[in-house]
Design a protein that fits this description.
Elements lengths: L1 H15 L12 H22 L7 H14 L6 H13 L7 H29 L3 E2 L2 E2 L19 H21 L5 H23 L15 H27 L5 H28 L2 H4 L13 H9 L2 H10 L5 H13 L2 H21 L7 H10 L5
Antiparallel strand pairs: 1-2
Helix pairs in contact: 1-2, 1-5, 4-5, 4-8, 5-6, 5-7, 5-8, 7-8, 8-9, 9-14, 12-13
């Protein structure tokens, strides 16, 4: 126990390096990320120090080292940083203690691990090519292979489980004595369940064997996929964790947060679908493949509502095909029905609806919701 306390204290020291007593300055975005990364570096070092206790051979330790550094870092870290931002906004100007900041950052990295777990598994299932501007983990050359043609491959399935398991090792180490420990575990387990149900709905929204059935692509089905696959872990989870950290226990307030953040997550995913089709891969960090992969996206669901019989026939013949010429014909239909304008109309309506919902919130600071909304409104990456 004493050793654990010393490790915790050494981690907290990263948060106060170069900090003058009694003097606090608002950090820049880069300073926030640097501080957040310092916690990752310490967590990573702790994981690597624990591995020898298991008697693992060198190649296994090196594999986990590469797994963590390749998949956990390198993203925008928005979900993880949202925990601290939300704690700050929910605290309504109260100066946070070093312990407050430390706990928020630890839970932020637990979300980043959850994200890494989902992405490693999702990329295998979708047979994606790139993630965050580099080959997906399963596509990466095998660290022990004799040629670049030997890939990580299906070993990545087990790797995704390793990433998930680390979440609960970290939570146990730093929060097992907290009164809300059980609620933290329940929140992560429930969010994982919801996200995996969303993934099931996504994967079963098209037929096996590359067959295309556009009747499966409805906005009702799409919204259900997005609700569970994206909105809970990307929007509700970071804020709900912050609410626990600041002492909020009221079920109605958690329901209020859910009622706002789930539609916000839907808006975010629809933006993502639009960017998958029209975004610059250099900016968004991946090559969009929703058309080739026969995805139930907002784009195809919306196109089917507005398409003429002739345009629908084109979509039936070319959607879900891998050739660039097929993709071009699908995008031509999108352009003909004015999908960009339809997206802009949806975006403005969603923004107004979310603002109205936020304006009606009682008994908790609304800034926590406005901050998230303003971060994603009209984003381009």
């Amino acid at each position: 126990m004493e050793a654990a306390k010393r490790r915790t204290f050494s981690l907290q020291q990263h948060l106060v390096a170069n900090e003058t007593s009694g003097e606090k300055k608002k950090k820049t975005s880069e300073e926030e990320k640097k501080e957040f990364m310092s916690i990752y570096n310490s967590l990573y070092n702790e994981v690597m120090r624990d591995l020898p206790k298991m008697g693992l051979p060198t190649h296994a330790k090196n594999w986990i080292k590469e797994l963590l550094n390749y998949n956990v870092v390198g993203g925008k870290m928005n979900r993880g940083l949202t925990v601290l931002h939300s704690v700050e906004l929910l605290s309504e100007g109260r100066e946070l203690s070093r312990s407050d900041v430390f706990k928020a950052h630890i839970l932020g990295w637990c979300i980043e691990l959850l994200q890494a777990f989902f992405l490693v598994a999702d990329d295998i299932m979708d047979q994606s090519i790139t993630r965050r501007g580099q080959p997906c983990w399963y596509q990466k050359p095998h660290p022990m292979g004799s040629s670049p043609n030997e890939k990580v491959g299906n070993i990545a399935i087990n790797d995704s489980f390793i990433l998930e398991a680390l979440i609960y090792k970290i939570i146990r180490k730093y929060f097992s004595n907290e009164p809300y420990y059980g609620e933290l575990l329940n929140l992560f387990h429930e969010t994982t369940w919801q996200t995996e149900i969303g993934q099931l709905l996504d994967l079963t929204s098209n037929l096996p064997g590359g067959k295309v059935d556009l009747s499966l692509f409805t906005l009702e089905n799409y919204k259900l996929i997005v609700k569970y696959k994206t909105a809970y872990y990307s929007f509700y989870l970071p804020v709900a964790l912050a609410m626990l950290l600041v002492g909020i226990r009221s079920e109605p307030l958690f329901q209020t947060a859910e009622d706002i953040l789930i539609p916000m997550g839907e808006y975010f995913q629809i933006q993502d679908d639009f960017l998958d089709c029209y975004g610059d891969p250099k900016v968004i960090g991946k090559i969009g493949r929703d058309i080739e992969e026969n995805k139930c996206s907002w784009m195809i669901c919306t196109a089917l509502i507005h398409a003429t019989p002739a345009q629908r026939k084109i979509l039936e013949n070319h959607y879900g095909r891998d050739k660039p010429s097929d993709v071009a014909k699908v995008k031509a239909v999108y352009n003909e029905i004015g999908i960009t304008n339809l997206f802009k109309e949806y975006e403005e309506k969603s923004y107004k609806d979310l603002r109205n919902a936020i304006d009606n919130v009682l008994n908790m600071p609304t800034e926590v919701f406005l901050d998230l909304l303003h971060r994603i409104y009209k984003r381009n990456m």
